[in-house]
Automatic annotation (TrEMBL):
Its EC number is 5.1.1.1. Its cofactor is pyridoxal 5'-phosphate. It comes from Dokdonella koreensis DS-123. It comes from the Bacteria. It catalyses: L-alanine = D-alanine. Pathway: Amino-acid biosynthesis; D-alanine biosynthesis; D-alanine from L-alanine: step 1/1. Belongs to the alanine racemase family. This is Alanine racemase. One of its GO terms (cellular component) is cytosol.
Length: 359
């Protein structure tokens, strides 16, 4: 059996949802579960987060999976319909569509299905990715209101570009712009992502759309989820499969990038970029062995990683090695690999064995 294993901490997911509710009291929580629940497993995450008021997914296929798993809460497809044929499937599954582009509006207008579809009007308040320009919002809202194929309760949403920098005026500018563009319009408001929940209480609206925080991950630079009261929901581990006694001057791995400064023991761990451990993790990236850090030395390869065992004379073949999770925040590993924690949890590959833990 492959030694690489991702343990999903169901209790941490539940606890993190409770923490989001504590930070955004009285607001509804849309648990964002795109990218297979940020790599934690869509159905498993939805089960653990059954207390959420709704779920946000990237595409209809994820909505299909959630309904097949028995999820009865509201489900919002964040990029909405990709083609007119999506409309009937959305209605069949009672999914809600974000409407962010005039093309989608035309598809809706041409659709005469009598079952009203719930939609969320996406406002571009400064992210400049998806959404209608603020100046068009009233006209689009009025148009949606008069379409019989659209449910009367139209949600209003926007997305922040830099809310993880708690003093960036851009976010305040986005909040003000969204308010101005939507003032007086009927409908529930949803502005905040996880960083919005943490740093921008004025943007909590009716719904918060929390992703990373639910998985215990921070996007705030230099901070980890635990700093905000969140617990990691994934621990990625593997085992030591070899211990080599090397001599001073021996060089390790592809391209021979790391040279032993003295005679020393080097451990080989059965995990690599084929499992989703980042190839970009530099020498010095920590792993945990027996609860204490050991640095990666040399290049990460497809199936294996080499680590410095000088501080671990007691290490034995078969010992468990934690790559990230409990005891080693994924944000720290991500920083050593030039990326963010989300990228690592989303990137765990199918050959990794997934297990669940109640705690
Ligand atoms: C991914 C996403 C979120 C969640 O963002 P986090 O930073 O993970 O909380 C919220 N809203 C939209 C539209 C998203 O795409």
């Amino acid at each position: 059996m492959r030694a690489s294993c991702a343990t999903i901490h169901l209790g941490a997911l539940r606890e993190n949802l409770r923490r989001v509710r504590e930070l955004a009291p009285g607001r509804k929580v849309m648990a964002i579960v795109k990218a297979d629940g940020y790599g934690h497993g869509l159905e498993r995450v939805a089960r653990a987060l059954e207390g959420a008021d709704g779920f946000g997914v990237a595409c209809i296929a994820d909505g299909q999976r959630l309904r097949a798993a028995g999820v009865s809460q509201r489900i919002v497809v964040l990029s909405g319909i990709d083609e007119p044929a999506d409309l009937s499937e959305m209605r069949r599954l009672n999914l809600e569509s974000v409407i962010h582009h005039p093309t989608q509006l035309e598809w809706l207008a041409a659709d005469h299905d009598p079952r009203p579809l719930r939609v969320w009007l996406k406002v571009d308040s400064g992210m400049h990715r998806l959404g209608f320009a603020q100046a068009r919002v009233r006209e689009v809202h009025a148009r949606l209101r008069e379409l019989p194929s659209v449910h009367r309760d139209i949600g209003l949403m926007t997305h922040f570009a830099n809310s993880d920098v708690f003093d960036d005026p851009l976010t305040m500018h986005q909040i003000d712009g969204f308010e101005a563009a939507t003032s007086g319009l009927a409908g529930e408001r949803a502005l905040a992502n996880s960083a919005g929940v943490l740093g921008w209480p004025e943007a909590h609206g009716d719904w918060v759309r929390a992703g990373g925080a639910l998985y215990g991950i921070s996007v705030v630079e230099g901070r980890v989820g635990a700093d905000f009261g969140f617990r990691p929901a994934m621990t990625l581990s593997s085992r030591l499969v070899a211990i080599n006694q090397l001599a001073r001057g021996d060089r390790i791995g592809y391209a021979a990038t790391w040279e032993c400064p003295e005679d020393m023991a080097v451990g080989v761990v059965a995990i690599g970029y084929g499992d989703g451990y980042p190839r970009s993790a530099a020498s010095g990236t920590p792993v945990l062995l027996d609860g204490r850090p050991a640095p990666v030395v040399g290049r990460v390869s497809m199936d294996l990683v080499t680590i410095d065992l000088r501080a671990h004379p007691q290490a034995r073949i078969g010992d468990t090695v934690v790559l990230w999770g409990r005891g080693l925040p994924v944000e720290e590993v991500a920083a050593c690999a030039g990326t963010i924690g989300y990228d690592l949890t989303c990137g765990v590959t199918r050959r990794v064995r997934f297990t669940e833990e109640a705690a």
